[in-house]
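Lay summary. Proteins are chains of building blocks that fold into shapes, and those shapes determine what they do. In this project we predict the shape from the chain. Here is one chain we studied, written as its sequence of building blocks.
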Amino acid sequence: MSVNLDEGNLKDGLLGLVVALVEIIQELLERQALRRMESGRLSDSEIERLGEALSELTEALDKIKSDNHIDGAVEQVRGELDLAAEDLINKFLNPASWEEEGQREES
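And here is the predicted shape, written in a compact code that computers can read:
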């Protein structure tokens, strides 16, 4: 069996995945920065530098998405990752669902 790959779609998908992961990491960094600011653990200069760095990262990601026309690919990856994370969280909160799913697969 042969697999036909479209090099353009593969490149867009891979770049979309990388950008989506960097965006998620950036969001986590922003949340951590807010926690540290609210707790008073950052000086004014550190807050300013952090804000500038996160802003520059946002601009760079937006440029990459725009230059490569991958906005849709990034949104799709983010949506699929959100669904996967939601499913995983649900399984941890409801372990009985694992057993039900396993029984359905065995049937």
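What the prediction tells us: The CA atoms of residues 55 and 95 lie 40 Å apart.
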